[in-house]
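Fold it.
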Amino acid sequence: MRLYIKVLAACLFALLGVVWGAWWAPFLFGFIFGADDRRGRISVPAGAGIGLVSWLLPLAVGHARYGFGPTADSLAAIMGFGHAGVVPVVLTLLVGTLLGLTGAWLGAAVASVVAPRASVDGTAR
């Protein structure tokens, strides 16, 4: 239960950061989450989810309010994908996902190096 609360809090703070213009907030809160929970198999997918949600919700709300269809089509045409407007949207969400994922991975890696689980004298616990 505590893990879900930490993921939800990190997701909420990253979302607020993105809404306030700090596009890098998923990396920061993914790093904090990964440093707190050093298990990479848990923190890296959770960090990816934090990044995805924190970029997906503002994009979905903006699309519902303003309709990003023509903008996405124009961007896709500039990128060379014709009028496949889904390509820039998917790439945008991929950037957000990778921000959270790399933040959580780096946080877990740094925490594992700085505070290893083995005792100082090398004997097992």
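The mean pLDDT is 90.
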